[in-house]
Structures are given as C-alpha cells and as structure tokens.
Amino acid sequence: MERSLYENYVQILKEELVVAMGCTEPIAIAYASAKAREVLGEKPEKVIVKCSGNIIKNAKCVTVPNTNGLIGIDASAITGILAGDASKELEAISFVDPKYLDEIANLLKTDYCTVELLETPVRLHIIIEVYCGESSATVEIKQAHTNITKITKNNEILFEQEESEDRYLGVFVDRNILNVKDIYDFANNVNIDDVKYLLDSQIEKNLAIAKEGLKGTYGVGIGKVLLNSYNNDISIKIKAHAAAASEARMSGSPMPVVTNSGSGNQGMTVSVPLIVYAQEKEIEKEKLYRGLVLSNLLAIHQKTLIGRLSAFCGVVSAACASGAGITYLAGGTLKQIEDTISNTLANVSGIVCDGAKPACGAKIASSLDGALMAHRTSFSYE
C-alpha cells in the first residue's frame, strides 16, 4: 500500500473513532446549544431548535445523560444551554452541575424551548437560535455531529465554513478510497503503534459500558435475558454484551463510548463482539487490534454511500463488519471475509431505523445473529 493511501486510512480511523457520551444526536444538540449560549454571552430568554428529520428521529426518544432521566430534543438543548461545556464537543454534558437539574425540568414545562422540523436536503442538520432582549445568536451544524458550519451574533456572520469538494461530506478524508481488499491488506500490515491508542480506548470504554449494561437496570435487559435464557455459547455472550452496551447508553448511562461513523451504537457493535470473542478464544492482543482495524474500516466503508444518518439501521452494517472481523480473528481468508459480508447483508439488510432508543439493543442482537451465522457459513464452504 502506497504511503499516502496508508496515511489516509490511519486518518480515517482518527476521524471516526471519536469518544462520545450519550446518544450522539441529542449530544450534538446539547453541544450546539452550549456553543450558542457561549456566543450570545448570557443566558437566553428563548431557544429555537431546528433539526432535520433524521436528527429528530434519533433524538426524540433517548434519555439525556446526567439529567435524572429527562428525554427529548428540548431536554438536550436546555441542558446544553444551562450546563454544557462546548469545548468538550460530544462530551459537552459529561458533567451537569446538580444545581441546574430543577431549572432544566421546570423550563421543559414552559415554552422556553421550541423544536421545529428543518426542511433541508442535509440529513444531519441542526440550527440552534438563542435570544435575549435585542441580542441573538445562531449555531449551525451540518454533515457531522461536531461540524459547526456557521455562527452568527446579532445577524452578523462570525464564522462560516466553505464546503470542500475533495473531502467526504466536506469534512473528512474522502471515504471512496476504501475497498474490502485494501482494508484487509491494511489490517494485516498497519503499524499497530499508529492506531493503538485509538483501539485501546475503544476496547476499554466499549467493554466497560457493556459490563455496566449487564449489571445495571436498563431498557428491558436484553443482555441479561440472553444470558439467562440460553446456554453459555460464545455467540450468546457476544450478542448479550453488545446489546447490553446499547441499552445502557440509550437509557442515559453517562459512560463514554468510542463511536464509529458518528454513532455510539455502531461503535459498540463493531468492537464489543470482537473483544468478547478474543477473550473467550484467548486470541493475542495484536490480532485483536488488527481485527478491530478491519471491522471499523469495513463499517465506515459501508456507511460512505448510505450516509451517517439514514432510514437504514446502522447497526446492520456495523454487525456485518463485526462478523467479518470475527472471521478474520478465526483465521479466515479474504474470500471468507467477503462471504461473511455478503451473507450478512443478504439476510438482515431490511431492518429500518425507527429512531434511537433502548430497543436498538434488540436490533444489535438480531443483526449480530445474522452476522455470526454468516461467519460460520463462510467456513462451511471450504
């Protein structure tokens, strides 16, 4: 692999394996809101949140972390306004001073914050407008959860970002350089030191929230149900851990996760199954690192044309990548990895996204079931 391509593959992993706390859509709203208050310079008297349909779909039913169980877009915005720290981006509300909790809850009962559907061709699009007396400020996010494209104060443009035609979504390295063979070659040959800190963070954080999901009370407890209802098979452990991680996060756990393609659910789905598989099979750490490189990049490759937000359930593509990663850890060839991809998508690609919520854990378990079946089938051909 030529050096420039290698460096772009490393950069893609750096751009996508991002730490986030809470479901990324409501956190993006909180981040933009915190930034809007920062620009305004005082507490707003009125807030208007304008969101694309996909943002609304993924933010309306998720518990906002550190708010005593508050749910929804307005709760995300008000928490960002009162207690957010914009410098922390997708961890903007990783700490919410308890003194604000009653005020947030009380403001939710008023017309302080209005939510509107934003008519836009951009799937990931947020505009926060804040007002105080004669003063106003706006913050606009497009294409990626932390990609602020415009800031205004009192109708004066303070910042505006120009779109770049040679970058994916105008923000990242062009993802069209990704393909399965090059991803496989890169996973085999990457200098682990170039990506180790990213993968160590993914292993630590995503496994930790999986364990929290299994011991805590979140959603309907899909992970616990799987472990208690079936035998001690490795497939059950894989599905249980990944599903439990999602339920904890969707139900408001403040524990951070490492995302993939702008999604915590996808970040957990591409990583937790490989981590559990490697532990159960006592696979060496370097092999796990390389499997995670493969899994992460395969998920990003699939999302390049699907889009970061869509009506297609993102955990399907993530589970597909995860199944391929497990095939890699099991010693599978490139052909077997390709078969795992094809057979997973032939089975579960019809799952639609009806919005982020604790039930995402069940979709993760179902998608991984298809991916694990495809993994096993890939070896039956030999």
What is the CA-based Rg, rounded?
Answer: 21 Å
Spatially, the strands of the biggest sheet line up as 3-2-4-5-6-7
Uncertain runs: none
Largest sheet: 6 strands, mixed
* Mean pLDDT across every amino acid position: 95
Total number of domains: 2
Distance between the termini: 29 Å
List SSEs in N-to-C order.
HEHEHHHEEEEEEEHHHHEHHHHH
Structural class: alpha+beta
Let me know the number of strands.
Answer: 10
> What is the helix fraction of residues, given as a range?
40-55%
User: What's the number of helices?
Assistant: 14
Q: Globular, elongated, flat, extended or rod-shaped: what is the shape?
A: globular
Strand content: 5-15%
List keywords for this structure.
382 residues, alpha+beta, 60s Ribosomal Protein L30, Chain: A, 2 domains, two-stranded antiparallel ribbon
Layout of strands and helices, then pairs:
Layout: H1 3-16, E1 19-21, H2 24-40, E2 46-51, H3 53-59, H4 73-83, H5 101-107, E3 113-117, E4 125-132, E5 135-142, E6 148-153, E7 156-160, E8 167-168, E9 172-173, H6 180-189, H7 196-215, H8 222-229, H9 234-250, E10 256-258, H10 264-281, H11 285-306, H12 314-329, H13 334-348, H14 360-380
Parallel strand pairs: 2-3
Antiparallel strand pairs: 1-10, 2-4, 4-5, 5-6, 6-7, 8-9
Helix pairs in contact: 1-11, 2-4, 4-5, 6-11, 7-9, 7-10, 8-9, 9-10, 9-14, 10-11, 10-12, 11-12, 12-13, 12-14, 13-14
